Amino acid sequence: MVRLLICAATVLLLCVGQANAQTSLVTPHPGYTYYNRPNASLAEHNTDVRTCLGLASRLVQPDPSAGAGGGGGLIGALVVGVVRGVQQGMAARRGLVANTTNCMMLHGWRLVQVDEALGEELSALEQPALATRLDAMVDAAEPTGDIVRIFHNEAAVREVIAFGPAGDLDKIPLSLLALEALEEDDEAESEQPAVRGERLRRPRSAASPRPLTERQLAALAPDSTLVVVNIAGTMGTGGTGFSFSRMGEGDIMPGFIDGLPDFFTATLPQPAFALSSRPHETTRVFQVPPGRWKLSGLGHTLWRTHFCFGAPFFEIAAGEVIFIRLDLLADERLPVYSPEFASAAVADLPAHILERARAASFTNGAPSTCGGSSAFYAWEIPGAPYLESYALGSRHPSLQPPPPPEPAALAIDVQAPTSTETSPQTEAADPLAESGAAIPGQ
């Protein structure tokens, strides 16, 4: 029995987290890589890397095997415990590197991969020597190597793996290896999350709302405030859910203060037995308090990606009905609306819901405290406005087009008069105007 457990554990260690060739928010890019941003200094590079490492360290990689090993007795539990410890350590390192890179992309950096020979040469250097070499590489407009990733709103792209277990870590990025170790005093003085004062007790009435049942829908008041979420996908994408959070002042969720719900998740049901490619669709109706609600995350079961760096949000007034459609099969996972979608989705619901339904009007860039999820990023809706305070992702200064050049000054060569004896009319006359010449800009 013990031998069987050890063999099974060994196979599991070899199979967990296979690298995926697709762009991924949860798998570190293979090969030797470093971060590059034109005109940035090595000091700016190191500051951003340390900040991103600190934020990424707050995230948690779930343990899907929790509770395993009980059937093998004490020895079986010990073996499984050791294996789980190794797995969790590997998952934590993978997640830390993947999320540090996510954070750096949002801060305008590019991920650059060098060839194997140069990578081996650089990785063999001691930290000071490696930092010296990177000093000449991190700011280059034409970097050494291939640019393999830059922010392009990846969380919204269907082909991008936006959530899931942390994938294989092939090589630790050179940018991390080049960091100088912090002294204990420096660590204490480094940027830390704000410590909240007295812990507020969440009121019981702030429990997350569940989708309304048919009986509850039939009994709804005609002025109920509702969010209708329609999710389209396949049986294989069942279990995928979108999280919504109510916005408050600062980091404190409003549910701590007013006792009302401040979070719900709309999930595509996951059938037990079905063809994975078979179309699958669901409509969920949630009764919510009015206010600002952001689309704060995306995930499946244990693994969730939190859009804490910037999430799109909408405002709903008392008595309104907001309709949101999310298509997991579209090229981009973006909210869409059309009267046809709304009519089909709520055809079996009370008539007053469709009569009041309108599209959500989104604004990009709502931040929140990062932590507790397995990955983080930002999610932007193209064409929607942005909060002025949002300066990450597509709004990072390094990704903005340069300002237009100033118009060239008009150079006019005016000949000096040949005689000082001129009439007042001659002195006041404009020689260009008299000649009929056109002045640019008039």
Number of helices: 13
How would you sum up the global shape?
elongated
Radius of gyration: 29 Å
Residue runs with pLDDT of under 50 for 5 or more positions: 1-21, 67-71, 76-85, 184-200, 416-442
Order of helices and strands: HEHHEHHEHHHEEHEEEEEEHHEEEHH
How many structural domains can be distinguished in the coordinates?
A: 2
Tally of extended strands? 14
In whole angstroms, how far apart are the ends? 92 Å
β-sheet strand percentage: 15-25%
Largest pleated sheet: 6 strands, mixed
- Percent helix, as a range, is 25-40%
Mean pLDDT: 80
Q: Decide which structural class fits the backbone.
A: alpha+beta
Brief overview:
With 442 residues, this protein is of the alpha+beta class. It has 13 helices and 14 strands.
What brief labels describe this structure?
alpha+beta; 6-stranded mixed β-sheet; 5-stranded mixed β-sheet; 14 strands; 28% helix; elongated; disordered C terminus
